[in-house]
Amino acid sequence: MSHVRIRPIGSPRDAIADDRTFASRRDRLGELEGRLRQARDEVEAGWGEKYVERVHAKGKLTARERIERLKDPGTRIHEVCTFVNHGVQFGKLRSPGAGVITAYVRIEGRWCMVIANDNTVASGAWWPMTPEKIQRAQKMALRLKLPTVYLVDCSGLYLPEQSKSFGGATGAGHIFKMNSLLSAEGVPQIAGVFGDCIAGGGYMPIISDRVYMTEQAYMVIAGAALLKGAKSQKITSLDIGGPEVHVHESGCADVRVPDDETLLRCVREELRRLPSSAAPFYRGDELPMEPLHPARELGELLPPDHREVYDAEEVLARLCDQSLFWEVLPDVGKEMICGVGRVGGLYAGFVINRQGLVDDPEHPGKKRPAGILYRAGIAKIAAFSRACDADGIPLLWLQDISGFDIGKEAEAQGLLAYGSSLIYTNSTNTTPMFTVLLRKASGAGYYAMAGLPYDPVVQLSTTLSRLSVMEGRTLSIAAFNTKLDDDFEIATDDPEERAKIAQGMQEVEERIERDMDPFVAARQMDTDEIVELGELRSWLETLVECSYQAIGHRRIKNPRIWSLHDLDVLVGGVR
To answer: Domain 1-43+286-465+527-549 class?
Structure first.
């Protein structure tokens, strides 16, 4: 629509840097993303080929095979929370992906959230962090009103670690509250029960709108083994809670089917009955178009060394359709870029930290570092965030931030209050927000730019991401401040004490550097997924389309009446 004044941005790759620079960045990123692919392969393997063969010997499919058969041909599965529990040992055992797969999957033209117990890992048992991972996926589905499909093959809690997954606010029982909230909001839930469905696993499908069971499936509060011990009854779990009982007697399930393949076809048929996606309506006559400057170049554009700068506009040029973008409030708070572009033919708002040096409006003729939140930039993105919320535009926050401005002048300008306004705005927005940690995500700046504690629907990290309060060197100085002089040099002439302090500072710095590894964040669910830079555009296409799929649950204005136009006029953008 012509009223949205998008313009071409970005430059060809060869105008940005020389081949040697790009090759160096590509090589370093290749190492990091090679590690990512290896880790992903480890998770996808579950407990290995022997356990895959056990599943097949029972005439069943693995969880990943089920998802492959569910998805529309030629479409991609976007898995989230892949690396929960990555590298964690439970005695001699590990739980790849916490024993459950959660993914955005396109089925019958509709994006769905699929939650599938990995039946190659302890028969789909729930480990520590499994409930939290399931709940996180349910929350994403609730926020976007995505149909939710449960592929249940679950032997219940992994009992040796039950104390870490049973009690507490996000214990296993909270899954069933999320089932209830999804139902209360009218989000369709479909469950397929393929085998073991014990205790909590037995409750998981029940609130779903439709429940299918294969002939091998059973749902029980207590399995046969427990009954044999407690009541001396010789009976099988199928006798207790198989399809004969739950389809024909209890009514806890709706349909029995012979096998996995049939059940999956039935789930697809159920989803076909739902309203189709509204995304084509909101695209109008626009078709999804690739960026003019290829998205795959992002890996060469971002320097792996977080101290090196780059042009943030070039990042946007590789994410927006046709590399077209409308920058809003360009003359205010130049350390921040905010504006609107299309992603997959659909409008989205972008906020990104500019890098390098920018003019200092408080001291004309001087420069100051970008990648930091100053007063005008905070006010600008708070106003932009509110406008996007009013207009129903999904918001994409692209972080590469060192934090807030600090010092006497910053405090006198009321940065705390401006920051609180931004935090309030992002805390109360109802439009979908998605956050990407491109590189640095430091201090309160990470919070202010819709970091995970401020409830974006999804937070993505790259292999370059560094999530922390502050950098390792800075933190080591803070930790040993009483041992340092005004120039941050070690304040002692004693060689032995000097060596001890230097070693302590180095150990702190190295520990913080290890903790900033994105795999640490992903392992403990401080970020939802680690993605390759070349995949980022595909991810954003999916998330933006999910934002427009459902209708009638939030305001989505047509572009003629956006609040953003009023904001633009009021600051002199249109005369």
So the answer is: alpha beta
